[in-house]
């Protein structure tokens, strides 16, 4: 049986084995518990870390969780069928307090998150990609909001970029209107596990990305409010081979089309937002066309001015040469006059030349 350890497959059905048999299907087929896996931890918050061949980064992510200002959490690492030897060895040997490793076949990011959340003990969930990090106070501050504000279903924060690009992640402030135009919430936002169950989890058909955008819209559509902590508590790694950057235009169109079809009622109820966007895009295009026309005229003007300047420079060179010739002629005449007044030339035989190069007649 694929995904099942041999000793499980050869066991005889007994009363003690019955409880193994009725475990969730994900545990029996696709998910193989890590050898030496600790018992399920009782925790308030579960951090779900999917990992596919990202062993070189995951220790940074784990270290950032270990530095949290509260201790009421667990870490569920989901090895999504990694093929990298170093990653597999690291996860096989991973021994860290409050941490469990679940091994599955490769099913994609959305399924990996679902598999981890399904096994989570916490009532609050924080997804964390294996190459990202969180600040020490993130869990405490996000959980406090969910504790005291039942109307809030999504808590996120301000973020900072690191890796190939560094600096603040300048996201627009959250509003439903802007959220319907583009995703404003990164993947590492905290939410309640019961809301995940109600929404049906992450859509595992979103194989080319944006599964978090789709999930946030599902929670928002069910009435969840969104709260952003006005503080940088999340650090997003920018990599050249990131999932979104590596997708083709056709794949992106396919994912957005799926999002729109799933949340058709939400988009239809706010269709004015899209109409305004199209009108604004049309006006912006007209402005761009006007600027392009002005730029072309300016380039023509500059080209004409450069040509005119070149002509003026040529005329100036010609005049300069003519002036130098006249100056040379005057100097020559002065020289001949001077020679004429020398004592040995008082007879006046030497005369300054005329412009034709000969002597003047007496």
Summarize the structure.
By secondary structure, this protein is α/β, with parallel strands linked by helices. It has helices at 6-9, 15-21, 25-30, 55-66, 85-93, 109-118, 138-148, 176-181, 193-199, 211-221, 249-262, 264-269, 271-340; strands at residues 31-33, 45-51, 73-80, 99-104, 124-127, 133-134, 152-163, 167-168, 191-192, 225-238.
Approximate strand percentage: 15-25%
At the fold tier of CATH, the topology name of the largest domain is: Spore Coat Polysaccharide Biosynthesis Protein SpsA, Chain A
The description of the largest β-sheet is: 6 strands, mixed
Model regions low in confidence, pLDDT < 50 over at least 5 residues: 1-38
Number of strands: 10
Radius of gyration: 39 Å
What is the highest CATH level, the class of the largest domain? Alpha Beta
What is the end-to-end distance? 129 Å
- What overall form do the CA principal axes indicate? elongated
Rounded mean pLDDT is 80
Compute the number of structural domains: 2
**What is the N-to-C succession of helices and strands?**
HHHEEHEHEHEEHEEHEHHEHHH
Q: CATH H level of the largest domain: which superfamily?
A: Spore Coat Polysaccharide Biosynthesis Protein SpsA, Chain A
Query: How many individual helices?
Result: 13
CATH architecture of the largest domain: Alpha-Beta Complex
* Share of helical residues: 40-55%
Q: Can you give keywords for this protein?
A:
single chain; 362 residues; alpha/beta; Spore Coat Polysaccharide Biosynthesis Protein SpsA, Chain A; four-stranded mixed beta sheet; 10 strands; 48% helix; 17% strand
